[in-house]
Amino acid sequence: MTATQTAPPAPAAERTHPRWWAAALSGLVAGAVTVGLAELLAAVLTVTGLAGGQPSPVISVGDAFVDRTPGPLKDFAVRTFGENDKLVLLGSIGLVLVVLALAAGIAAGRRLVVGLGLVLLLGLVAVGAIMTRPSASPLDVVPTVIGTAAGLWTLRWLIERATPTTSDDGSAAGWSRRTFLGSAGAAGAAAVVAGGAGHVLESSLGSVEDSRAKVRLPKAAEPVTVPKDVQLPIKGITPWQTDPATFYRVDTALRLPQITTEEWSLKVHGKVGKELTIDYRTLVAKPLVERLITLTCVSNEVGGKLLGNAVWLGYPVKDLLADLEVDPGADMVLSTSQDGMTISTPLENLTKNRDALLAVAMNGEPLPVQHGFPVRMVVPGLYGYVSATKWVTDLKVTRFADDEAYWTPRGYSAKAPIKFSSRIDVPKGFAQLKAGKNAIAGVAWAQAVGVAKVQVRVDRGSWQDARLAGAPSKNTWVQWVYEWDAEPGSHTLECRLVDADGNEQVESKHGIRPDGSTGLDSKNVTVS
């Protein structure tokens, strides 16, 4: 009798790790699904009016980053990138997300739970950022929660499809490059479609631009007249009136607030005997006035271009507050924009003249959305961060001792009257000039006081008076020109302003913190 021998069962196929590039691609696609779906759902909440604050995870994370960025780094961003600082920030966030998504995929390829944990952590960070935004509601986190869940599922699904099995003879099974790439491509395409649909959903409705197009501005009860001699006929000099398309914009809004005239209202409360809520229709029915006012950003370095001049149409804040029985102990108005930005303005700057406005128009047109449509504040004589609240929806009459605005704890003064200054526009720095008559020209500003004269000196010689163009208001900048008889050689040109009170421009150089820069603008040129 012979024993029958049975062969031992073949060992089960072993799971192996996916190739690194497949794991990385899995993470990248999963990240795209997370963001794309979350942005689509956030857009749905926004356009349906269900969002309490800012449901977009990308914008919320960006806003949270802006709020927590040290002041000197913000100053560097504005100085280096100017009005493109927001694009740079959003681009940087996108780059970081790509790197983290790749890292999550590679980690998941070695150990799935680690990669999934990284995706979950990023989702929790976004949820935290969303809930810290002004007026946030629990519903705002739903897009991010759903997007994160979809990203987790996608990452696990793709990692499984990218992971081969190894049989007892060492051959690979269960892995198809074509199948995996097809799955990744389909998921990636779905992510792109979702993200694109979210963008289209928000932009195609055009409710804010439609609302702006329907505005019919009333005639000003107090129109302004611009003298004919405000613009000097000099090539290269800054135009006296700034086109809204080129007017500087410095704010923290990564996504422009969208408010229609029908939705807008302003609440005035705090230390007043009577509170007031006013809508857009009521505001524009009041006797509106025109004012010529130059606005200046505190981030404007000596010789910088973060300022602009325009004709503003609006209702005087002084008149709005006149019947509200303002408490005599109040000394500040804390204004709040629709996106939660707060700005503190000395009360006396709003009540002692009728030039501080709730503005509805700029250079004869309704405010552009990027400049505060439908209503913003314009206050002459103060830097924008303590006066020029865009998309304003709330005015609280209070005291500096009781309330603090956004920029104050970030290293800026609570009160910031504009420091008068001047700038050389012509010639440009390092220009090559011909000997003989050459125009040195530019603009000068001393808002709320007025420009008495501008002077120029060459190679630190004696100061020479320049010729001023017309100026219809002490609240606007003024153009100036000095005819220089240039001699061959290298030269340094400087300018300074003397205001209507006889004060000379500060020559010592100082940065923008805490309340504006000082120093003289200068240009080095070569004459042949």
TrEMBL record:
Residues 504-528 are annotated as: Disordered. Residues 519-528 have a biased composition (Polar residues). Coiled coil: none annotated. The chain crosses the membrane at residues 20-47, 87-106, 112-132, 139-159. Keywords: Membrane, Transmembrane, Transmembrane helix. Pfam families: Oxidored_molyb. InterPro entries: Ig_E-set (IPR014756), OxRdtase_Mopterin-bd_dom (IPR000572), OxRdtase_Mopterin-bd_sf (IPR036374), TAT_signal_bac_arc (IPR019546). The keyword Transmembrane applies. Gene3D superfamilies: 2.60.40.650, Oxidoreductase, molybdopterin-binding domain. It comes from the Bacteria. It comes from Angustibacter luteus. This is Molybdopterin-dependent oxidoreductase. Residues 255-403 form the Oxidoreductase molybdopterin-binding domain. SUPFAM superfamilies: E set domains, Oxidoreductase molybdopterin-binding domain.
